[in-house]
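In this section we walk through a basic example: taking a raw amino acid sequence and producing a predicted 3D structure, encoded as discrete structure tokens. The instruction is simple. Fold the sequence below.
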Amino acid sequence: MRLLLSSSLVALCVFLSACGGERDSLDGSPLSGISMEMADGWYAEETAGDDRWSWAQRQAEILFRNETEETRRVAFLGSLRSINPRRISASLSGRLVAEFELVADQWILAGLEVTLPPGETRLRLQSEAAAPRIAGESRELHFCLRNGRLATLEDLMMAEHEPSFASGWYDEERDRSGAWRWAQGEAVVVLKNPSEKAEPMTLRFMARALAPRELSLKTGDELLGKVALDGSSWSDMEVGIELPPGESQVTFSTDESPVRPDGDSRDLDFCLSNFSLLPSELAKGEE
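The resulting token sequence is shown next.
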């Protein structure tokens, strides 16, 4: 994503889940008096479990309402996805403020810090590429927004550190108990530090495999930690890391060959669930 900063909105690129309901307002909180709704250009909302999403035409708008008498600074969090690569531009009051580069069939979480004067403010999202042709589909599906919501600036700061699963991973799977990803061979997670100095962070996750093996994780040549997986149960892991400014890659690997279960076409080395990146001070406070 390329950022174009203005006094009214700062765009920040992040990794998590997101799509629009008709209205989102929280009373008695930092978001009281603020609401949002999906305006023009969106198809009907679709849902599955706790997730909700809406596909968009070439151009779609989100309407924010500030029903207070003061200018308010809030955040909007939402994941974007498209069927084929495309660029999505975001504009506020006719001014281009951000561009999101989408790759095929991958969710990209984006966060926006929005300054809202009293009254209504519209955020316009627009696709530059033509919609793909899909057999049996009459809609022009340019891009999709999932779990869009209003958020506090503190939520946005936490989202800035959201890790992203890069190479070596299969698609996310989920049920009511949570979400997980299987990996084949070496798999990479990208960690982000948007500040200008190194920050002590803590990685937390659960890991399992279908056969006994040792899972190790490195950043560059530095071994961060390893855990023995027994081939059936989940193992909890917590690893401290001094995260430099910008992006850092953490590589996960095992010492055994992958397993292909009956009825599954995938080669599965290991699985991670409940993956999170927290400031170490906050992680200690949760113990």
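Looking at the output, two observations stand out. The domain at 2-160 is CATH 2.60.120 (Jelly Rolls). The longest strand covers residues 72-81. In the next section we compare this with other chains.
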